[in-house]
């Protein structure tokens, strides 16, 4: 499958049904989904159905992308942009297997997604949301230059919303 984005270490491409096993496994880890409001898939077949029905690429022209290690082809997790019709806004999100945390992959892939969003898609603003207790994700958002906007209710938890405008983003 053709890459959407590349960084020094990573390749980002569309998710596909061939990723179902990795996608299923990613959501099995309690620490990975603790702050997401998501639940684990029941089985690989449910993950396959999710990926078969994932229409963001066709509907919006972008979405969450598989993050692949260029050195060995391994699936590290996902990162990408998601359009929300409700808020008429685009969100940056990421999720990685725990053994890839603290290696800069979230920041590296998210920075590439922001660059793509602002330069290629010509978005004006991108938002990021996290549970306030998800310190690591909040740090990534801040490292990327997103600025705190407000608190909100995130599935019964304190959530924080950040945003960055195109004219404030510096692709590094």
Describe the structure.
The chain has 172 residues and is of the alpha+beta class. It is 29% helix and 33% strand. α1 packs across α3. The longest helix has 16 residues. The two termini are 26 Å apart.
The largest β sheet comes out as: 5 strands, antiparallel
Helix proportion of residues, in percent? Answer: 25-40%
Number of strands: 8
Q: What share of the residues does DSSP label as strand, in percent?
A: 25-35%
Short description:
Helix content is 29%, strand content 33%. The protein has helices at 20-26, 30-33, 44-52, 56-60, 105-120, 135-143; strands spanning 3-6, 10-14, 64-69, 75-84, 89-96, 125-131, 147-154, 157-165.
Question: What's the topology here?
Answer:
Blueprint: E1 3-6, E2 10-14, H1 20-26, H2 30-33, H3 44-52, H4 56-60, E3 64-69, E4 75-84, E5 89-96, H5 105-120, E6 125-131, H6 135-143, E7 147-154, E8 157-165
Antiparallel strand pairs: 1-2, 2-3, 3-4, 4-5, 6-8, 7-8
Helix pairs in contact: 1-3
Descriptive labels:
single chain; 172 residues; alpha+beta; 3-stranded antiparallel sheet; 29% helix; 33% strand
